[in-house]
């Protein structure tokens, strides 16, 4: 890929990320989650208990994540069978590789609709406190994983919008754009 193509891709990525995230900028506070907080396992595999995702919302989530420039949806290399990995293309610089669990997979979605993602430690704390996420059981066992969380399955379009914003913020954190 030549410099002009890379520059154009970068400009498109910045435009999409700026336009896609007006509701939750990096300094904006998250709203409280109003729906019930699911139970989760406290071991690996780290999954929700008794949650059935809405297939339409899960499909919308994958579609929106696939529109992030430089991100590919692939089969995961680190999660359960059937989980979808959110991979950062080789053309995108990763400035925090130590927060990624495996390869260039910065997040993944489980078959139950929940996601694991690397957030900044501050955003992870906020997401947990406001009912959007819970820490991964190993979050305190590896340097860089302080912000590694499970984001609960979105159950409505409003929740989907917020979860997509969290995925974008994860992407920005991993790539150094936040």
Structure description:
This protein has 178 residues and is of the alpha+beta class. It has one domain: Aspartate Aminotransferase, domain 1, CATH 3.90.1150. The strands form two sheets. Strands 3-4-5-6-8-7 form a six-stranded antiparallel beta sheet, with helices on one face. Strands 1-2 form a two-stranded antiparallel ribbon. A hairpin with an 8-residue loop joins strand 3 and strand 4. Helix 2 runs parallel beside helix 4. The N terminus is likely disordered.
CATH topology: Aspartate Aminotransferase, domain 1
Q: Structural class of the helices, strands and pairings?
A: alpha+beta
Portion in beta strands: 15-25%
Query: How are the strands of the largest sheet arranged?
Result: 3-4-5-6-8-7
Mean pLDDT across residues = 86
- Anisotropy-based shape: globular
Number of strands: 8
Alpha plus pi helix count: 4
> At CATH's second level, what is the architecture?
Alpha-Beta Complex
Instruction: Extract low-pLDDT stretches.
Output: 3-25
CATH class: Alpha Beta
- How helical, in percent, are the residues? 25-40%
Instruction: Report the end-to-end length measured between terminal Cα atoms.
Output: 25 Å
**Main sheet?**
6 strands, antiparallel
Summarize it.
By secondary structure, this protein is α+β, with helices and mostly antiparallel strands. The protein has helices spanning 3-20, 55-66, 121-129, 157-175, and strands spanning 39-40, 48-49, 71-75, 84-88, 105-109, 115-118, 133-135, 148-151.
Jot down its keywords.
8 strands, alpha+beta, 4 helices, six-stranded antiparallel β-sheet, Aspartate Aminotransferase, domain 1, 178 residues, disordered N terminus, two-stranded antiparallel ribbon, globular
């Amino acid at each position: 890929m030549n410099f002009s193509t890379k520059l154009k891709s970068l400009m498109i990525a910045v435009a999409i990320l700026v336009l896609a995230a007006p509701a939750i900028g990096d300094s904006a506070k998250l709203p409280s989650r109003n729906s019930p907080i699911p139970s989760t396992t406290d071991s690996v595999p780290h999954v929700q208990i008794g949650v059935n995702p809405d297939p339409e919302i899960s499909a919308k989530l994958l579609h929106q994540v696939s529109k992030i420039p430089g991100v590919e949806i692939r089969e995961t290399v680190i999660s359960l069978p059937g989980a979808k990995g959110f991979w950062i293309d080789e053309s995108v610089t990763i400035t925090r590789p130590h927060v990624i669990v495996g390869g260039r997979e910065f997040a993944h979605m489980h078959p139950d609709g929940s996601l694991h993602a690397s957030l900044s430690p501050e955003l992870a704390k906020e997401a947990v406190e406001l009912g959007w996420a819970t820490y991964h059981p190993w979050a305190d066992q590896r340097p860089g994983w302080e912000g590694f969380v499970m984001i609960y399955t979105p159950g409505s379009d409003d929740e989907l919008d917020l979860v997509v914003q969290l995925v974008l913020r994860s992407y920005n954190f991993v790539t150094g754009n936040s």
